[in-house]
């Protein structure tokens, strides 16, 4: 039972739109009230009614170390004792910038901000200024934060709520946004033939997580790199999810692509608000106060938030971390595939490293259109039943599940058994 959660929700509804501070947390897509949580411990979340859940949301990605990691807590404690914010540079920001640069060689200079949205918003402004062009290419189902000009057929909560784009955004802000199907080489070829010299940049989630996890087709990311070089447009990798998730140098390291700009968030803040954008020095030097492109933030590079990010990345650079994440993720993937085989179900499971999605469709999921073939009603029933078994997965078919370093084989095996029991009961 979740009585206190319900009471908090009823109170929240009186003061906060939808009772939540970010739509996807409302759990509307799974026909549930949101759960109010009290605390997190390693791979577990405990709600205000004392129920414990194995957590596969991990705060939508940031908690790759699991909840309340001692190093993160200690770092934040020592930082906050010295004050919360100075509105002036601190040594922690320089350390985090240097650490990120050492992991992602394409980043020669980096600016810290407070969220992934700020990172992508700033990156496209910079790309437009640097190239003196207006058009931006994005992909259907990809979500880059609630940036006005990018909320066009975006992913994440926008698919969940089936909002093709949000009201309140004048078409003048979106007429320069070209929306293409992900993994569609010919559509990109065509649009560049028509608008090539007007296109400032392509912004892409190299491994989309916001329509559920979709893998780039072989050669697709290389193709984006080649065509942007050919037309002198920039390639922006939105690695807010994939950065430090699928490896120390993110998707660009895994696929061997060098983007012009990279957007980061989530993990680099270790659960506190940090975003960043960075790339070639020649481009980044266009950013004020070095250059003319304005971008600012009262709490950008906040020393307390940065200290959580530093502690997180310092854990991730230790040997064996990604090998552990891979073996746990592989164990879960193989377990789920075994369950599907046993129950003669052909749902689709897409995984890259420790991010994955189980799609309730028999169609191969390679883009936005195929994602939409998923049975969201069935997913809602699955979500509720998993919750009742103490497993908390993202409350939307169109999100990624995440595994943390705090998960062990015990949690993975419990999850596999729960999935078997729930799918058996459902079918
Ligand atoms: P934030 O502004 O939420 O920190 O980051 C925006 C963003 C940018 N780029 C990518 C690839 C992202 O995934 C996100 C945010 N992701 C969503 C869910 N996948 C955050 C959860 C929410 O909106 O509450």
The strand count comes to 14
Estimated helix fraction: 25-40%
- Overall structural class, as computed from helix and strand content, comes to alpha/beta
Task: Tell me the radius of gyration.
Answer: 21 Å
Q: Major sheet: size, sense and barrel closure?
A: 7 strands, mixed
Following the backbone from N to C, one meets helices and strands in this order, namely HEEEHHEHEHHEHEHEHEEHHHEEHHEEH
| CATH fold annotation of the largest domain | Aspartate Aminotransferase, domain 2
Residues in β-strands, percent: 5-15%
List ligands, each type once: ligand KE4
Into how many domains do the coordinates divide?
2
Number of helices: 15
Quick one: CATH class of the largest domain?
A: Alpha Beta
Biggest sheet, spatial arrangement of strands: 4-10-9-8-7-5-6
Q: Give the N-to-C terminal Cα separation.
A: 25 Å
The rough form would be described as globular
The CATH architecture of the largest domain can be named as 3-Layer(aba) Sandwich
Mean pLDDT: 96
Under CATH, the homologous superfamily of the largest domain reads Type I PLP-dependent aspartate aminotransferase-like (Major domain)
Question: Could you please describe the fold and organization of this structure?
Answer:
With about 425 residues, the chain is of the alpha/beta class. The chain folds into two domains: about 5-70 and about 320-425, Aspartate Aminotransferase, domain 1 (Alpha-Beta Complex), CATH 3.90.1150; about 70-315, Aspartate Aminotransferase, domain 2, CATH 3.40.640. It is about 40% helix and about 15% strand. The chain has 15 helices and 14 strands. The chain has helices at about 5-15, 70-80, 90-105, 115-130, 155-160, 170-175, 185-195, 220-230, 250-255, 280-285, 305-315, 320-340, 370, 375-390, 410-425, and strands at about 35-40, 45, 50-55, 110-115, 135-140, 175-180, 200-205, 235-240, 260-265, 275-280, 350, 355-360, 390, 400. The strands form three sheets. Strands 4-10-9-8-7-5-6 form a seven-stranded mixed sheet, sandwiched between helices. Strands 1-2-3-13 form a four-stranded mixed sheet. A three-stranded antiparallel sheet has the order 11-12-14, covered by helices on one side. α7 packs parallel to α8 (about 220-230) and α12 runs parallel beside α15 (about 410-425). The two termini are about 25 Å apart. The model has no long low-confidence stretch (mean pLDDT about 95). The structure holds ligand KE4.
């Amino acid at each position: 039972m979740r009585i206190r959660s319900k009471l908090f929700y009823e109170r929240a509804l009186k003061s906060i739109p939808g009772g939540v501070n970010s739509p996807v947390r409302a759990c509307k897509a799974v026909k549930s009230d949101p759960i109010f949580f009290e605390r997190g411990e390693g791979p577990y979340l405990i709600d205000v009614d004392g129920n414990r859940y194995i957590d596969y949301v991990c705060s939508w990605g940031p908690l790759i170390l699991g909840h309340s990691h001692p190093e993160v807590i200690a770092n934040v404690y020592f930082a906050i004792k010295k004050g919360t914010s100075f509105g002036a540079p601190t040594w922690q920001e320089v350390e985090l910038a240097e650490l990120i640069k050492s992991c992602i060689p394409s980043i020669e200079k980096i600016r810290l901000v407070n969220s992934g949205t700020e990172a992508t918003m700033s990156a496209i402004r910079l790309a437009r200024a640097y190239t003196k062009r207006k058009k931006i290419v994005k992909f259907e189902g990809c979500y880059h934060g609630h940036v006005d000009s990018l909320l066009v057929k975006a992913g994440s909560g926008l698919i969940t709520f089936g909002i093709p784009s949000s009201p309140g955004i004048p078409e003048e802000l979106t007429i320069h946004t070209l929306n293409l199907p992900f993994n569609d080489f010919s559509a990109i070829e065509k649009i560049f033939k028509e608008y090539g010299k007007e296109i400032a940049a392509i912004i892409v989630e190299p491994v989309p997580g916001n329509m559920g996890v979709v893998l780039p087709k072989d050669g697709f990311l290389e193709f984006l790199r080649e065509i942007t070089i050919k037309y002198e447009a920039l390639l922006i990798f939105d690695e807010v999810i994939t950065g430090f998730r699928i490896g120390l140098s993110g998707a660009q390291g895994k696929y061997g692509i060098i983007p012009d700009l990279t957007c980061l968030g989530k993990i680099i803040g270790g659960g506190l608000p940090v975003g960043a954008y960075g790339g070639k020095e020649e481009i980044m030097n266009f950013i004020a106060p070095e250059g003319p492109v304005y971008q600012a933030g009262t709490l950008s590079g906040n020393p307390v938030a940065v200290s959580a990010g530093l502690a997180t990345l310092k854990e991730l650079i230790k040997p064996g971390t990604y090998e552990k994440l891979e073996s746990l993720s592989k164990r879960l993937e193989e377990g789920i595939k075994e369950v599907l085989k046993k129950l003669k179900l052909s749902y689709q499971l897409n995984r890259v490293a420790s991010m994955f999605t189980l799609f309730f469709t028999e169609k191969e999921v390679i883009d936005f259109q195929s994602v939409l073939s998923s049975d969201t009603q069935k997913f809602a029933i699955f979500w509720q039943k998993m919750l009742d078994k103490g497993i908390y997965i993202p409350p939307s078919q169109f999100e990624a599940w995440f595994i943390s370093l705090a998960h062990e084989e015990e949690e993975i095996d419990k999850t596999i058994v729960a999935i078997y029991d729930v799918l058996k009961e459902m079918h």
